[in-house]
Amino acid sequence: MYGVSKTETYDSGKESVIIRNYVNGIMGGVILDMTGFSGEFIQCGHIIIRDTKSGEYKPMPVTGEAYASLPENHEYVGICMTTAPADTPHVGVMTAGEANDKAVPYPVDTIKAALKTAVPTLQWGHDAIG
Q1: pLDDT at 1 over 50
Q2: pLDDT at residue 58 above 90?
Q3: Which domains does the chain have, with CATH numbers?
Q4: What does pTM read for this prediction?
Q5: pLDDT averaged over the chain?
């Protein structure tokens, strides 16, 4: 096929349960600035931020297995709705709805309060098992 040299996929097995209820998002999605991002894929459920000076959308920085601090001059925007290769980071961003806090790629417990303040239309939930 023209323009396609190889196909790569990523599936953590959780993509189908991360977005519990989609209400609204950024129409047409965004292209992420992946500067400093070391992963091969941006995963569904990753927190998306925006540089308030340049307007660029970015994945929330990660340190080890957790989110790092929100960089200066950045704001929380929403949740990545799709998994995409880091070299073609065209993603949908949910700005209103509910996400599964137990299925997202990194724990959100330490940033939930700040997220709630910045994006009050995002909710978190999960099914109780057992």
Answers
A1: no
A2: yes
A3: 27-122 (2.40.300)
A4: 0.89
A5: 90
